[in-house]
């Protein structure tokens, strides 16, 4: 199997501002993501999800271990790795003083994309922003902000897209529209790395799920594989399968109990 992302023994620490001691955020993280798939990294606040994304997107360097994106080491070949990735953070990174069209055109010029005007019109249409294309972004709704942000990230057709909590703050209708867009990216061959606090989002989208807790991956697999961590389902009139949320909370709870007994 060919992997778009390979992570081996990743470690990262930060110096605590209060105590001055080292705060170990990642303690040996390992996972592989097949090309053209949707991968979800789940974890409680402070588990290290965003730190992992920052390392993989070349914004931060690991203390130990290595990560490879599209065949490029993110430390030794950072410039090459950046050519095949895109990152959309938790908050829309758009210039509200400009129009939607102008935001896209600037990104196209920075990436030296040919036929920028035509490509900009295509993306505006694809993300249902044509009618608002020439309005200042300050007049956009939250969902429109998010769609424009992702459209900007996708200019140049990156092979790997990092979506760090992409639907935070969106209403249910816009969230579902975003889900459909993410599914469409994967169908088109793009590899999607997703972090989210909405477990139903990962349940709906992800082909492979990893749970990050206390700096390490404590469980990973498909949703069906994670369900097997639960006792056999009780059969009455229907078979009741645990949701991803139940699986996540059970795993995290067990780990917390283990630590309290140490």
How would you concisely characterize the structure shown here?
The chain is α/β, with parallel strands linked by helices. The protein is 35% helix and 25% strand.
Shape: globular
Which class best fits the helix and strand makeup? alpha/beta
Number of domains: 1
Q: What is the strand content?
A: 15-25%
Low-confidence stretches: none
CATH superfamily: P-loop containing nucleotide triphosphate hydrolases
Instruction: Report the biggest beta sheet as strand number plus sense, adding barrel if it closes.
Output: 6 strands, mixed
Mean pLDDT: 88
User: Any idea what the radius of gyration is?
Assistant: 20 Å
For the record, the CATH class is Alpha Beta
What share of residues is helical? 25-40%
CATH topology, what is it called?
Rossmann fold
Description:
With about 260 residues, the chain is α/β, with parallel strands linked by helices. It contains nine helices and ten strands. The chain has helices at about 50-55, 80, 100-110, 115-125, 140-155, 170-185, 200-205, 225, 245-260, and strands at about 5-15, 20-35, 40, 65-70, 70-75, 85-90, 160-165, 190-195, 210-215, 215-220. A hairpin with a 2-residue loop joins strand 4 and strand 5. It is globular.
What tags apply to this protein structure?
Rossmann fold; alpha/beta; 35% helix; 262 residues; 10 strands; four-stranded antiparallel β-sheet
Draw up the topology in text.
Elements: E1 3-15, E2 22-34, E3 38-42, H1 49-56, E4 64-69, E5 72-73, H2 78-82, E6 85-88, H3 100-110, H4 116-126, H5 142-154, E7 160-164, H6 172-187, E8 191-195, H7 199-205, E9 208-213, E10 216-221, H8 223-227, H9 244-260
Parallel strand pairs: 3-8, 3-9, 6-7, 7-8
Antiparallel strand pairs: 1-2, 1-4, 4-5, 9-10
Helix pairs in contact: 3-4, 3-5
